[in-house]
Amino acid sequence: MSSVPKVTLSGGLEICRVLNGMWQVSGAHGAVDKARAVEAVQDYVDAGLTTFDMADIYGPAEEIFGQFNTQLKSKSSESPVPALQGLTKYVPRPGPMERKVVEKALQRSMTRMQVDALDCVQFHWWDYGDKRYLEALGHLSDLQQEGIILNVQDINTSIRLQAQLRTLICCFITEAFSLRQLLGRLRPH
């Protein structure tokens, strides 16, 4: 296996500098041969590219990763197994954001990916005018504290919104508030 430069995310997760994007297996580009796709994953891993970027909305991407992950684990007694990193996205449909909604979606991703915890969940929200994203972030934070998620990232916030969230988080951190308390104060009543 080749050596590929790595980078460490703010949460401590080490990933390849080059990610294997799995949007191409979403089905949006034509029919996908899952068996061939699983075989292709091995080619990437053999080249040292062990970080895969997928989403709950990328068709069978999480399942393909999971099938490969299962095959890799079954070979672990034969030789050392390279560590895979699975970065997935949580892209909820607009609607209620109770914990059970968020948890069910993440459990589905974990089952598909054949993992006990999610390395990284990249949060995508369609409309930041809909403040229920704060509830979703709160639940993601709780699930991270519980070890279900190792890293949480956002992927489609504006620079303005990122700055607002950073400012609020910094203010509350200096007052020893948790993210859960912060989000509770930001939620509409």
UniProtKB/TrEMBL annotation:
Domain NADP-dependent oxidoreductase: 19-159
A Pfam cross-reference name: Aldo_ket_red
InterPro entries attached to this UniProt entry: NAD(P)_OxRdtase_dom_sf, NADP_OxRdtase_dom
The protein, known as: NADP-dependent oxidoreductase domain-containing protein
Species in which this protein is naturally found: Amphilophus citrinellus (Midas cichlid)
